[in-house]
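Treating backbone geometry as a discrete language has practical consequences that deserve illustration. Part of our work consisted of pairing the sequence of a single chain with a tokenised description of its backbone. What the numbers capture is local backbone geometry rather than side-chain detail. For completeness, the protein is quoted in full, as a sequence line and a line of structure tokens:
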Amino acid sequence: MSNLTKKIETQLRKNYQQPLLQNQAQGIWYTGADLLEDLTLCRTSLQQQAVQPGQAILISTTNPAPIPALLLASWQLGLTVTLAPPTTELPALPLKRYAAMVYSAPQTLQLMQQIDPQEISHLTLLLNTAPDFAYFVHDLAPLTTATTAPALILPISQTVISQDELLTAVTAHNWPVTISDLYDLTTGILPLLANLLNPTPFSLATAG
């Protein structure tokens, strides 16, 4: 567990009953307890699917609310997270690159009809931030040989950044409390992490 995830988890525990994150589309607020529960569920589910440190997870969904817990859980397990803006087209499952994949609910339902259950698992979780959350795991994903992996990849801006670099970046500025695009570094990820590190109620707009 990195300094970044340790610090955020500590703050979530200190603000267990405080509203911290708002799903702007629904007007629902989630407390530190809600986020901690989601973090634990995501981490445990990924662990049970035997994802390994150094492997990669793709997140490309229009629902931003579960993304903070997914990010933290993935980083605690040593995964590289690729945040790719969701598209309206049905994606092809990039099995050669990712051990786990998260898509928007309609895309997930369509992809379920195409997967080989001998190769790909479809997992559902009852998250506070997403009661209908589901994701895919590539059961035959190759293990990585890399000794160190980037924490975050943002394809749209070709950004590759480590957790230590993220932690340094968020302490350098004051950040907004309304996050319009979680798939962008400066208007999304950095304000998100900053508001979790210095517990400040913030809202997430729907992506895509």
